[in-house]
Design goal:
heterodimer; A: mainly alpha; 17 helices; about 70% helix; globular
């Protein structure tokens, strides 16, 4: 499959920063990426980070235990705000996952070979973000054993089945398919690297474990042909899939009749927002990974700058979404929609809305300047700001739309409780825990794909006589 | 089953270009039971040993259609036959509502058949393979480029094949034992 062989020199000519710094050979790439995992000991920063993250995750697990004991009454939700943190966090996390698939599938199909050094950890980020997201639908009823037959078509003696006309059921299929396909994509990409680790790990137990996971991969030319065919097909499948996932998530809202939800702009603007927050998370992860592991020659400023440009572009699409929502509320002449828009801007949650505009629309405009796009400090700070902004966006969509709908007698107010916060912060801990375990045990950068970026990987003569 | 004592002869080359050139010569000399091993995909190496097409896309198509049929069949059976519920007077077979689950299961089954099909066609998992008996082969996943002529090739003759491989100026030639 020709899509996989990129011309290594092409990219360097177009950008200022190279994708791989000069001086690398095939052997140094294997050595550099695998040494962090199999040769060096566990660094102190890793242990410290793991302790904090694992602690937060365990607090979350205890709170979830309490939730199952007491029920959802420990949360801040009420009637009319029946959807609170669980849904906000679900949408936020699943959005973050989208950048991983964009990098691994869409940029692959577009032959953007600079992606080769960031796709592995971005895919891992996708998996862990989707795991954090998937936690919320499982616990949001407070009765997780019900989730089995409420969400999935499980044959039971009761003879009840899910309602397939409901977007909530579509969502179950979209998210579980997305997780499974992302996992398959990630594992297929890992297999040749697991073989590298099997062959280069110094200890027998490491060779045993990586050897079992590598399944006997030996790099045969016939295997590579099928491997690349499978990889291309997976990329082709993951591309419409990733666009469908957040579209279906937005249907959870858009198919309802609530003012602020019932709008056709939701699918595209949800997808853009998802990629927006996802790239912010990629940058937040890439900056520490490249400096703590000394991988600045493989995750270069080029990658960070490209991510900043993508954030700028998707951020503008999100801004367009906000503008269209407000315009349609005015132009559509529906008084409930227009009331909602006013309530967003000047109602009890107005500070959240203006903070959202600042975080998502105003502050990221500094990425027009190359100085900000190439400063790791500002990239990190602004990416954090974007993640906060995207979380606020989901808060506004869920809470502000629900708290004042058609009938003033049914208005309400929502304040999250400490249990809401504990579970949200706990998912951040869970995400960080899994990310740290991944960095410790598996290659954070694809070894085999990095080698394709070297000029030596190119076969010099074009003539193949019997082809 | 009777095994010959030798699986084949393995030659190592230092660059992808040398590997492809050698593979072309071996193929031109009439050998067919040959293979190359490299740490990353080399398209022209597969062409040089006469391997062009994989049947994977057909497997994926069948998998995808199975997923589509499963999704629609499941939703139709549940919503029309086993558990019909009148929602606002909509027909039991509300097929536009079923599109999304159909799409998702099509993608899911296609992806699973792509991965399972790829590994199955490759004969993996296969923890043991004779090439692993050669010490130098650890570099097939690092920076070594290997070419093998297997003993099952009709043209194979231990002494002649070995000297032929040596004439291609490789970094080394090894006998691959079982």
């Amino acid at each position: 499959m020709s899509t996989h062989i990129q011309r290594p020199g092409e990219d360097v000519a177009q950008g200022v920063f190279p994708v791989v710094e000069p001086g690398h050979t095939f052997a140094t790439i294997t050595e550099k990426i695998s040494a962090v995992i199999v040769r060096r000991g566990t660094p102190l920063w890793w242990l410290a980070g793991f302790l904090v993250a694992f602690g937060a995750m365990n607090v979350m697990l205890m709170v979830i235990g309490y939730l199952f004991y007491r029920g959802v009454g420990i949360w801040g939700i009420n009637i009319p705000i029946g959807w609170g943190f669980a849904i906000i966090n679900f949408v936020w996390w699943i959005g973050i996952g989208h950048a991983g698939t964009l990098i691994s599938a869409i940029l692959f199909l577009l032959k953007q070979s600079w992606r080769n050094s960031i796709n592995r950890f971005a895919e891992a980020m996708t998996l862990f973000a989707v795991m954090c997201a998937g936690l919320f639908p499982l616990i949001h009823t407070g009765r997780p054993w019900l989730a089995a037959y409420w969400l999935f078509p499980v044959p039971l003696t009761m003879g009840v089945w899910p309602q397939f006309r409901s977007p909530l059921i579509w969502d179950v299929f979209a998210v579980s398919t997305y997780f499974t396909v992302s996992l398959l994509f990630w594992f297929v990409g890992l297999v040749p690297d697991l073989a590298s680790l099997r062959d280069h790990a110094p200890h027998r137990w490491q060779r045993m474990i990586y050897g079992m996971l590598a399944m006997g991969w030996r790099g045969s030319a016939r295997h590579w042909v099928r491997y690349e065919a499978a990889y291309l097909i997976l990329a082709g499948l993951a591309t419409p899939l990733v666009l469908s996932v957040h579209t279906v998530v937005s249907f959870d809202f858009a198919v309802s009749l609530i003012p602020g939800w019932h709008t056709t702009i939701f699918p595209p603007y949800f997808v853009a927002g998802a990629i927006y927050s996802g790239f912010a998370m990629v940058v937040i992860l890439a900056i520490p990974i490249r400096s703590l592991y000394g991988l600045k020659d493989m995750i270069t400023m080029r990658h960070l700058e490209n991510s900043a440009k993508l954030m700028l572009a998707t951020g503008l699409i999100v801004g367009y979404g906000y503008a269209v929502e407000a315009f349609m509320a005015w132009y559509g002449n529906n008084k409930f929609e227009w009331f909602l828009t006013n309530n967003r801007l000047f109602g009890p949650y107005q500070y959240f809305y203006w903070a959202l505009i600042a975080c998502n629309i105003v502050i990221p405009q500094v990425f027009w300047s190359k100085k900000f796009r190439t400063s790791t400090f500002w990239l990190f700070v602004i990416s954090c700001v974007i993640l906060v902004g995207m979380w606020l966006e989901r808060f506004i969509i869920v809470v502000v739309s629900l708290h004042r709908d058609f009938v003033p007698s049914s208005w309400g107010f929502y304040i999250p409780t400490r249990y809401d916060w504990a579970i949200f912060i706990g998912t951040l801990g869970m995400f960080t825990t899994f990310m740290l375990l991944f960095l410790r045990a598996l290659p954070a950068i694809s070894i085999s794909e990095m080698k394709l970026l070297l000029p030596e990987a190119e076969v010099k003569h074009a003539e193949v006589k019997h082809a | 089953m009777k095994h010959p004592s030798v699986f084949g002869y393995l030659a190592e080359f230092e660059t992808p270009t040398e590997l492809v050139q050698a593979a072309e010569k071996v193929y031109a000399d009439g050998y067919r039971k040959i293979d190359t091993y490299s740490p990353f995909p080399i398209e022209s190496a597969a062409e040089a040993i006469g391997f062009h097409k994989s049947r994977l896309s057909l497997i994926v198509l069948i998998g995808g259609l199975t997923g589509l049929a499963t999704a629609f069949g499941m939703q139709y059976w549940i919503s029309v036959i086993d558990y019909p519920i009148n929602v606002g007077g909509r027909p039991f077979n509300s097929w536009p509502s079923f599109i999304i689950v159909c799409f998702e299961l099509t993608v899911l089954f296609s992806a699973a058949s792509a991965v399972i099909g790829m590994f199955a066609l490759n004969g993996l998992p296969m923890p043991y393979h004779p090439v692993f008996n050669v010490q130098r082969f650890v570099d097939a996943s690092n920076d070594g480029f290997f070419l093998i002529i297997e003993a099952t090739d009709p043209k194979f003759d231990a002494a002649e094949t070995e000297s032929f491989l040596k004439s291609l100026s490789p970094a080394g030639v090894w006998e691959v034992p079982y």
